[in-house]
Design a protein that fits this description.
By secondary structure, this protein is α/β, with parallel strands linked by helices. It folds into 3 domains: 46-245, no CATH class; 264-315; 317-557, Rossmann fold. Helix content is 51%, strand content 15%. The chain has 23 helices and 13 strands. The chain has helices at 16-42, 46-73, 75-79, 82-95, 97-103, 110-128, 132-147, 149-166, 174-177, 179-203, 212-226, 230-245, 253-263, 319-324, 352-359, 371-380, 394-403, 428-437, 456-467, 521-526, 535-539, 557-577, 580-585; strands at 268-276, 279-286, 291-296, 300-308, 311-316, 342-346, 363-368, 390-391, 408-414, 438-451, 471-475, 490-498, 532-533. An 8-stranded mixed β-sheet has the order 8-7-6-9-10-12-11-13, sandwiched between helices. A 5-stranded antiparallel β-sheet has the order 1-2-3-4-5, sandwiched between helices. Helix 16 links the parallel strand 7 and strand 8 (390-391).
Length: 586
């Protein structure tokens, strides 16, 4: 039976061939559009997967960039302009991807250029770090990341824009069509940055490939693998060789020997170094002046004199750590002998205070989050222990102690690094937990370091005295008489508080005796607290009214903002303690 063909109805005078051509053309366009939609829903996912990979790599690179800057500038100064550099780089790359593509020679595409740039970032960082003294803690991190992370962000964003521009996206409403790829890419980038940051925070430094510079070099290799080319291989090889053989920041014996060869000219020696969960940790010694210190990123955790007047010694170089031991000297209605007392020390440093408590026969438990800090304290600073240390986060560990109804006669709270205290350990909730851990007549000593020209110390003191009403406050050094209004006043202070005292009773210290000094000249000088500050100075606002603001969990934003100023001031002080070469070579 013959098939039936549709007959077109033609109006008089119409060009039949032309109308049929237009009709078929329209039908073909509709079919092509439909095929494009169907192909996009079940077609080639390669552009999307490549874009995802590039965004994840940039998120990881963002964290590693910060890790590399923190030993030279400190984690807080390094973070101030970090987001600005990342946003500006991504925006420039996304908006200018077409111009970049046309500007590059055919042999050097955006992916290939990204691989080359990434391979030379460690080289450029090593060249820029010696300029830190000239650039300072404000401009230094911004300039360094603008010249290293910035180009990586520009090229990564341009590559992602190229990939998503070539991909066949499903049809979207017009108001979403332009914004969706960019917003989605930024969301993926920030998610990758957050996730990789948590992973790196737990595993950095555990093996060589997870150290800072090694991870940058590995990322350079990964970028090269994503854009395979003989030209790229030849271009990245010198950068990778420089990193492996000449970069002083690589955690290899060869690099450490090169660092010591450089430091020896100034009378310094690097005894050990490792990367760990709280930062880059090292022990350096001044052969000329006879002392050694432990550093974490751009801060000192403590130090000891090793030689005084030609004699081998092990004396603390900072008076504040000897002052903390005065927690034993606070008089109590029910005196507890050292052999019957127990103590909890939160924050180890080089172990000056817990070692002294152990030497006095006190059952002492140390809580320290960083295993490398504990390792170096035991290896290089003669740490004394009579209990297994708790290598754990203090917030969760002390919460467990509260649940188990554990109590202590003494608590020493000594946590500080990089120009700022960990704010979670000064909140009302954390301090209330420490109060629960104190014996009814127990004493707590809290070391707080900060800029006393800023409001943060007042808020911290109000928070402490809300939990422990009976306190006395002592500075490590007296107030400078020549200090000008608005000038930084950075120092340590120790707040001694006693639980169970009547509201009108005052905390008192017994006089120190020979046995308290442990044959230490430093303790003879600093054990008994001096330079007392009146508590009322911290409780009143500038207008004379009593302040009420305290530090609560999830309300730490203002303190963290002030940390930016405090950390920069601390950076300047640290550069007077150790020469810039020691900080820059890390």
């Amino acid at each position: 039976m013959p098939s039936k063909k549709p007959k077109a109805k033609l109006a008089a005078g119409t060009n039949t061939h032309g109308d049929l051509t237009e009709q078929y053309t329209a039908e073909l366009k509709d079919l092509a559009a439909q095929a494009q939609i169907e192909d996009a829903s079940a077609g080639d996912l390669t552009p999307y997967l490549k874009a995802l990979a590039v965004l994840v790599l940039l998120g990881i690179y963002s964290n590693i960039s910060q890790l590399n800057l923190s030993p030279v500038y400190g984690s807080i100064p390094a973070s101030v302009y970090h987001v600005h550099v990342l946003v500006a780089g991504c925006f420039a790359g996304w908006a200018g991807n077409l111009a970049l593509r046309h500007a590059l020679p055919r042999a050097l595409s955006t992916p290939r250029l990204l691989a080359v740039v990434a391979a030379y970032v460690p080289v450029l960082q090593a060249a820029l770090f010696p300029l830190s003294e000239r650039l300072g803690a404000r401009a230094g991190p911004a300039v360094t990341e603008a010249l290293t992370l910035g180009p990586v962000a520009v090229l990564s964003a341009a590559w992602v824009a190229d990939l998503l521009g070539d991909a066949r996206l499903p049809r979207l409403p017009s108001f979403l069509a332009d914004a969706a790829p960019g917003l989605g890419s930024w969301a993926v980038l920030k998610s990758a940055e957050a996730l990789s940051g948590r992973v790196l925070g737990q595993h950095v430094g555990k093996v060589l490939v997870l150290t800072r510079v090694a991870m940058e070099a590995i990322l350079g290799v990964v970028y090269a693998a994503l854009a395979p080319s003989r030209i790229v291989a030849l271009a990245v090889l010198p950068g990778l060789l420089h990193t492996a053989l000449l970069n002083p920041h690589v955690m290899t014996p060869r690099a450490a020997a090169a660092v010591n060869a450089t430091l020896a000219a100034d009378g310094w020696v690097l005894l050990d170094r490792k990367e760990s969960v709280t930062g880059y940790v090292s022990v350096v010694e001044s052969l000329e002046r006879g002392f050694r210190v432990m550093r974490c990123d751009h801060s000192l955790l403590g130090g000891q004199w090793t030689v005084l007047q030609g004699k081998q010694v092990a004396e603390p170089i900072y008076g504040v750590f000897a002052m903390l031991e005065a927690v034993r000297l606070v008089e109590s209605r029910e005196k507890v002998a050292d052999k019957d007392a127990n103590a909890l020390v939160i924050g180890l440093g080089i172990g000056t205070t817990p070692s002294a408590l152990v030497a006095h026969g006190i059952d002492t438990t140390v809580v320290e989050i960083d295993p490398v800090v504990h390792e170096f304290a035991a290896k290089y600073f003669d740490l004394k222990e009579n209990n297994e240390p708790a290598i754990a986060d203090a917030v969760s560990y002390t919460a467990g102690l509260v649940e188990s109804k554990k109590t202590y006669n003494y608590i020493v709270h000594d946590v500080f690094t990089g120009g700022a205290e960990p704010v979670d350990l000064f909140t009302l909730e954390f301090l209330q937990g420490l109060s629960d851990l104190l014996d009814p007549n127990g004493v707590i000593a809290i070391n707080y370091a900060g800029d006393f020209s800023l409001p943060a110390p007042k808020i911290v003191i109000r928070t402490i005295t809300r939990v422990f009403p009976n306190c006395r406050i002592f500075r490590e050094s007296p107030v400078r008489e020549d200090i000008q209004e608005g000038e930084a006043d950075f120092t340590n202070m120790v707040i001694f508080c006693q639980k169970g005292l009547p509201a009108d009773a005052g905390l008192r210290f017994r006089p120190a005796v020979v046995e308290d000094f442990l044959q230490s000249r430093a303790r003879q000088m600093f054990l008994e607290p001096e330079h007392e500050v009146q508590k009322l100075d911290f409780l009143l606002e500038d207008d004379g009214e009593e302040g009420t603001e305290i530090l609560r969990r999830n309300e730490t934003g203002r303190i963290e903002e002030w940390h930016k100023t405090t950390a920069r001031g601390h950076w300047t002080i640290m550069r007077t303690v150790l020469p810039s070469k020691v900080w820059n070579l890390w």
